[in-house]
Design goal:
Helix 7 packs across helix 8. Strand 1 and strand 2 form a beta hairpin. The protein is built from eight helices and two strands, in the order H-H-H-H-E-E-H-H-H-H. The protein has a two-stranded antiparallel ribbon with strand order 1-2. The longest helix is centred in the C-terminal third of the chain and has 44 residues. The chain is mainly alpha-helical and about 220 residues long.
Amino acid sequence: MRGLASDAEGREAGGLGKGEGRKQRLGKAGRSALIEAYLDRRADLVRFFTLRLRSDAAAEDLVQEIYVRLARVADDIAIENPAAYLYRLGSNLMLEQMRGQRRSAARDAAWGDAQAMTLGPDPVADEVAADEALAARQRLTAVVEAVRELPPRTQEVFRLHKLEGLSHTETAARLGVSRSAVEKHMIAVLKHLAVRIAANTGGSRGSAASSSRKRESDDRGNS
């Protein structure tokens, strides 16, 4: 992990040394500086992680996940070098995904071996647990409902890229627009979803806190 982070920081330092026309945003704090750096360097991030993942689509998904994570960063946190922070965050996410995929594959293989059933010479297909399927449908429904609040073209870009699995380049070709236009639409989707996620998280925390205060009040009243 430290090696990937150092690689990312080295690339960042090299880019600054080559005079790419970008200024290091030192002294700026919190989420706004990170989002500004993200929007400025998004294309560089995609290229950087495409080389490591050997997949344009996987790199695009990873870079989009970076933006989602930025929505959870506190507004007042001090970030000395926002650009380097983005590369470290992306590298950590990439490692998390790789480890998760290995764990999932090992777990699925072990479960399959333990639960394997056959009917004659053929294996019987496993069914997804009902509660897991329901939770997945609920998450997808919430995302789709949020996306429906956006303009029709943005919805179409989201549908082609996220639901049909087209890359940004393929989506642009399908719609007859530039790849940068597709990226702008997807950034709009991510911004909107980040706001909704933050609102839902805040609402859930507020509800939980309210319930906790009510229980404490009831306990005092009963004592």
